[in-house]
């Protein structure tokens, strides 16, 4: 009985074992089948899924092209920056790596904490040790971007300095960052690409600047970090083209300083200055300032009003109206024009002059900026043929878009004659019921400065790769083959613009040695479709020197306030023009004439010491009877005690800061800027001190301040 029971238990155990074995075999078969399915049937798909999750072919951005000023100074460039990462897995490879890690981890943590100043050494150590323990092959140590010098410093930290990067674990992830060497200079015009917003040269020339991206394999290290890996088909990115603008950094600096001073004085809503080279149409400076409560100065460049803002131009538009009338009717400048009591009534509208002028001449209509006089003449010349006036404006490039290089730039808002109401002809002739950008208006005035020939404004001259000019934008610049008007009309127009400054609405800026011609403009602002008394848009457009114009300048300030006299362009924008033209004249040696005249008798008994420019030597040593010296182009230290004269030749060693103490402003600027230095001057007279000592090493665009008295 017992024997049968034991046999029965053995059979049960055997059956259970066989059943368990069969289950194990079945599980093994299933496992093998699934493994086969994973490897051979679904392997490619799964491998691709994993590969695409952690290793991807990604675009490699090309190095973005640089943006330069007209003299080759960098306005925008791409600089490499680096994020600091670590591959902790290298310290798990062997006993030597483990030992190095233990010996130097505390030193490394202390160095990181001291350098970044955001976590304690203990926190950095725990972060690294934890990543090493978990077998991570990448750890972002800090998200701050390092420059090249900082990268070199970090590479010398303990543990990082013990061998090649592959052995020390240090990882530098390169990031190209756009950098503007001159800071906020021409900020909105040079532009930027940020948050999907593209503005200025950066935006309009993005296709040329960005280059052709390459491609390569990258391994995903964490949420936002990818590291290049070997293998796969790769292509090298092609760098972008370099863009050369027509901007002159010295003129740009003058413009921005003058406009900022005016804006803080008159508290305008926004202000614009454009400087154009008359013969070429090249924009040499452009500045836009608008109110910004978050800016330390209260103003910043947040919108390119010069190009994109269209407003009633006001009285500056009287000039194209006058040009059209002179061409059509050949009006004599001395012809009388009755303006009565200074009010012009037309149906339900009334246009007024600033004050009654009575009977004035055609020339005085422009010189005194008479609204009534302009309307009287317009009715006389074009009332029966308004479409003819429109045709003249079209010829003057005041109907169509400029197709300027920086986009977008609006088309002028000037209705076609078929849509004109009873007021349009007369009101538009004095700058109302139309909208023009500042750039559009200065382009017309520039044609007057350029002997009547209109040239399309440009701000980018060429695109290059190394020394090769890939695109010459000057070649496609539009230039009229015929002048806007006859020589007779041009002479009259230029005479009236000169009269505006010598005896008209801008006579407060007369008296320069070079001469200014231009036109003031003061227009009531439109708010919610209505013209508001006491709210004005002021402007002054002109050119200099008056005889052989080189520069055309527009200054406009919207809604000037803060002073009782801040109403008309005469008080607000014309003085800004004068400040800018004076400073440009001081810096542009080609505009200067040689000194002329005689020394006063009082100098015969005076003691003088002056550094003399080579251009002026012939006057001192010939015209004034002083001892003759050899004119070899060298600077001289001229000293005179009573009638005893001593001349000491001066030399300025190469690549050093010259000594300009004793020079006048013109000579000091000429000397310093020829060394590639930027100059900021204070005071009047001769230089008494300079911020960087003479003999110091020079570097391009070094800012040097000089004090005159």
UniProtKB/TrEMBL annotation:
Which controlled-vocabulary keywords does the entry list? Answer: Carboxypeptidase, Hydrolase, Membrane, Protease, Transmembrane, Transmembrane helix
- Which residues belong to any copy of the PASTA domain? 652-709
- Principal localization reads membrane
**Which InterPro entries does this one have?**
Beta-lactam/transpept, Beta-lactam/transpept-like, PASTA_dom, PBP_dimer, PBP_dimer_sf, PCN-bd_Tpept
Q: Give the stretches traversing the membrane.
A: 12-36
Query: In the UniProt record, does the keyword Metal-binding occur?
Result: no
Coiled coil residues, start to end: none
Q: Which SMART domains match?
A: PASTA
- Protein location: Membrane
Listed PANTHER family: PEPTIDOGLYCAN D,D-TRANSPEPTIDASE, PEPTIDOGLYCAN D,D-TRANSPEPTIDASE FTSI
What protein name is recorded for this chain? PASTA domain-containing protein
What species was this sequence derived from? Aquirufa beregesia
């Amino acid at each position: 009985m017992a024997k049968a029971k034991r046999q029965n238990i053995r059979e049960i155990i055997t059956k259970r074992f066989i059943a368990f074995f069969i289950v194990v075999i079945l599980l093994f078969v299933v496992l093998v089948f699934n493994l086969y399915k994973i490897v051979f049937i679904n392997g490619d798909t799964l491998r691709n899924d994993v590969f695409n999750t952690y290793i991807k072919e990604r675009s490699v951005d090309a190095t973005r092209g640089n943006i330069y000023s007209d003299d080759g100074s960098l306005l925008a460039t791409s600089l490499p920056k680096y994020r600091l990462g670590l591959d902790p897995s290298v310290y798990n490879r062997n006993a030597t790596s483990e030992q190095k890690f233990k010996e130097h981890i505390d030193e490394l943590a202390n160095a990181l904490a001291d350098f970044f100043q955001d976590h304690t050494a203990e926190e950095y150590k725990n972060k690294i040790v934890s990543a090493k323990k978990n077998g991570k092959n990448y750890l972002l140590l800090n998200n701050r971007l390092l420059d090249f010098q900082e990268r070199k410093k970090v590479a010398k930290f303990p543990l990082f300095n013990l061998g090649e990067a592959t052995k020390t674990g240090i990882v530098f992830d390169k990031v190209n960052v756009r950098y503007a060497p001159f800071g906020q200079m021409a900020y909105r015009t040079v532009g930027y690409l940020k948050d999907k917003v593209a503005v200025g040269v950066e935006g309009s020339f993005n296709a040329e600047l960005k280059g052709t991206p390459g491609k390569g394999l990258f391994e995903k290290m964490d949420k936002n970090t990818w590291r290049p890996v070997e293998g796969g088909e790769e292509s090298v990115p092609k760098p972008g083209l370099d863009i050369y603008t027509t901007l002159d950094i010295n003129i740009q600096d003058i413009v921005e300083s003058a406009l900022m001073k005016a804006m803080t004085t008159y508290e305008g809503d926004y202000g614009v200055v454009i400087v154009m080279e008359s013969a070429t149409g090249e924009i040499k400076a452009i500045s836009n300032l608008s109110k910004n409560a978050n800016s330390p100065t209260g103003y910043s460049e947040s919108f390119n009003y010069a190009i994109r803002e269209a407003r009633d131009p006001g009285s500056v538009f009287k000039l194209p109206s006058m040009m059209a009338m002179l061409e059509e009717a050949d009006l004599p400048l001395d012809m009388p024009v009755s303006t009565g009591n200074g009010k012009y009534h037309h149906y339900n509208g009334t246009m007024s002059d600033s004050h009654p002028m009575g009977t004035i001449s055609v020339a005085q209509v422009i010189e005194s900026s008479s609204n009534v006089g302009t309307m009287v003449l317009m009715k006389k010349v074009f009332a029966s043929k308004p479409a003819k006036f429109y045709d003249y404006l079209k010829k003057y490039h005041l109907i169509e878009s400029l197709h300027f290089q920086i986009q977008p730039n609006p088309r002028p808002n000037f209705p076609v004659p078929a849509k004109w109401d009873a007021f349009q002809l007369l009101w538009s002739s004095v700058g109302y019921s139309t909208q023009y950008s500042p750039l559009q208006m200065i382009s017309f005035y520039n044609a007057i400065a350029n002997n009547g020939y209109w040239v399309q404004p440009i701000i980018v001259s060429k695109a290059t790769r190394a020394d090769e000019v890939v695109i010459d934008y000057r070649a496609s610049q539009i230039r009229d083959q015929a002048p806007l008007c006859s020589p007779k009309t041009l002479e009259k127009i230029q005479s009236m613009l000169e009269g505006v400054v010598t005896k008209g609405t801008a006579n407060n800026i007369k008296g320069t040695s070079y001469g200014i011609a231009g036109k003031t403009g003061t227009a009531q602002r439109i708010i919610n479709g209505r013209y508001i008394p006491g709210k004005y848009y002021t402007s002054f457009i002109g050119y200099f020197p008056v005889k052989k114009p080189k520069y055309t300048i527009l200054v406009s300030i919207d809604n000037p306030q803060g002073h009782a006299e801040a109403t008309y362009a005469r008080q607000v924008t014309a003085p800004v023009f004068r400040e800018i033209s004076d400073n440009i004249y001081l810096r542009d040696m080609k505009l200067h004439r040689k000194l002329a005249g005689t020394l006063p008798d009082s100098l015969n008994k005076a003691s003088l010491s002056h550094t003399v420019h080579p251009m002026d030597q012939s006057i001192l040593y010939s015209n004034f009877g002083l001892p003759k010296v050899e004119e070899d182009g060298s600077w001289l230290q001229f000293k005179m005690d009573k009638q005893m004269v001593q001349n000491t030749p001066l030399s300025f060693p190469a690549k050093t800061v010259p000594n300009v103490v004793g020079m006048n402003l013109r000579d000091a600027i000429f000397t310093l800027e020829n060394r590639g230095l930027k100059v900021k001057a204070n005071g009047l007279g001769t230089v008494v001190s300079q911020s960087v000592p003479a003999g110091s090493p020079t570097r391009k665009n070094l800012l040097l301040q000089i004090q005159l008295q």
